[in-house]
Design a protein that fits this description.
It is a single chain. The chain is built from eleven helices and eleven strands. It has two domains: 65 residues; 204 residues, Vaccinia Virus protein VP39 (Rossmann fold, 3-Layer(aba) Sandwich), CATH 3.40.50. The chain has 283 residues and is α/β, with parallel strands linked by helices.
Length: 283
């Protein structure tokens, strides 16, 4: 059997292409080789005749079997990258996505990194938003909430591993809210209508937590409205609210926030030109 890394790469990409498309298949195999076996893309290209050991070949074969069953590559290797840092991911958490990096970058662009702020991340999941803000705004106090105990435990592990000071707490936004004021509240809540489920890839629907993904078709802004209400009583004067949103609900979210009494409400587009983020200020 040919164990040369160049041949294995080509064969693996061919196997995954019918499921993921060629470009994503190439990205997945590059990630698998680098983070599972320590073979970087440059090393693969400059050492195409390198032979994989039997143990490495078996490790790759086992990973491929999972990928062919639509298991996300991040679950296969156990982590995902977010803003160039590794985050533990599992069945309790969403896999961090590039659009959410843009949300963090927006917050960092609009706020003084050296100012001491009280920051709350609602629906923290892996903790990627809260941890990124805590590491970039070290004078600030950052708290992450999630209704899932499993997600909170995962976020705590990520916070410790990355050296961030974040208070991770189990909290239901529809329950009683602790009496604390914040200068900034951010959330990437569930926002995908159930009607969109049929269009989504199986490796998302089958392996990521439904409660962190989907909302009712009848009330897709349910979490945004509730978090906006929390902001009315828990944001300090001049406090800011930041959301990641569904591309179809930018105007609706903006109108809802204005109706609630927020000012300077603005919708921002992501790198693909889709409405993806909203910022509002409570004066």
């Amino acid at each position: 059997m040919n164990h040369k890394v160049s041949a294995i790469y080509k064969e693996s990409v061919l196997q995954l292409t019918p499921i993921y498309g060629e470009r994503e298949a190439e990205s997945i195999i590059n990630l698998l080789l680098e983070d599972h076996l320590g073979i970087t893309r440059i090393h693969r290209l400059t050492n195409p005749e390198r032979e994989l050991s039997e143990s490495d070949h078996e490790k790759l074969r086992s990973a491929m079997l999972q990928l062919l069953r639509n298991v996300p590559v991040q679950h296969v290797i156990g982590f995902a990258y977010f803003m160039d840092r590794k985050y533990l991911v599992n069945k309790h958490t969403l896999i961090p996505r590039p659009e959410t990096e843009e949300l963090v970058e927006l917050i960092l662009d609009e706020n003084d990194r050296h100012q001491k702020l009280n920051i709350l991340d609602i629906g923290t999941g892996t903790g990627c938003i809260a941890i990124s803000l805590a590491l970039a705004m070290r004078a600030s106090n950052v708290t992450g909430w999630d209704i899932s105990e499993g997600a909170v435990k995962t976020a705590q592990k990520n916070s410790q591993a990355l050296g961030a000071q974040v208070n991770m707490e189990v909290q239901d936004v529809f329950g009683e809210i602790p009496p604390q004021q914040y200068d900034l509240i951010v959330s990437n809540p569930p926002y995908i209508p159930e009607a969109d489920r049929i269009e989504m890839h199986e490796n998302v629907v089958a392996f990521e937590p439904e409660g962190a993904l989907f909302v009712s078709n009848d009330d897709p802004l349910i979490f945004y409205r509730r978090i906006a209400e929390i902001g009315l009583t828990h944001l300090a004067p001049g406090g800011k609210l930041y959301f990641e949103i569904h591309e179809a609900f930018g105007l609706a979210t903006k109108d809802m926030l204005r109706t609630k009494g927020y000012e300077d409400v603005k919708v921002f587009q992501d790198l693909n030109g889709k409405d993806r983020m909203v910022r509002a200020i409570l004066l």
